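Let's practice the habit of predicting before peeking. Look at the sequence and jot down your guess about where helices and strands might fall. Then scroll down.
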Amino acid sequence: MTTTRALIVVDVQNEYFDGILQVQYPPRDETLANIARAIDTAVELDLPVVVLQHEAPEGSPVFAVGSSSWSLHPEIERRLAPGFHRASKVLGSAFTGEGVAEFLAERHVDTVTIVGYMTNNCDIATAVDAEIRGIDAEVLSDASGAIHLSNDAGEVSAEQVHQTLMVLLNSNFAAVGSTDDWIEAARTGAALPKSDLGSSAVQGRERFGA
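Done guessing? Here is the structure:
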């Protein structure tokens, strides 16, 4: 069965390249290049594209409206096209952006492909929200990224965060694949392969024991 996809470009803003929230893993320049490839492929295949920008009030340390932190990365800005749906948001899920849900529904989208930042915030929020809405989700592991985290609950590297969330997502909420895999699937209309919670649990016990 073929899929009706839309590409969701989540918050590819300057903040994630030179701000407090710099993406640490995978290397942000590599993820940016893959995000650009995904956009170019979506344009080639005439897939719907949604471009999100997270925003905060003026004077905020990150994403302050009108600031460099808030602005889209130039590689994304120069790829914007009139047919793209652009929206701002203040919450994690891309579906909370103005008009996003309606844009997708009008085009009978049944699968959203999520690229952008961050794995540990807006990407996972969008994938979970998609499930609630009855929409399949895909996350491109090399076109998204995470940051190092440390707080009273402990600490974890960006690599650990990203890899853990890719496994978690693929076990239930989203099919996870590379940009190369996705381009091939998108050109044929096929879905990316996805595991499930039961299979992931069985494989986990085989790997680590009961």
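How did you do? The two ends are 37 Å apart (CA to CA).
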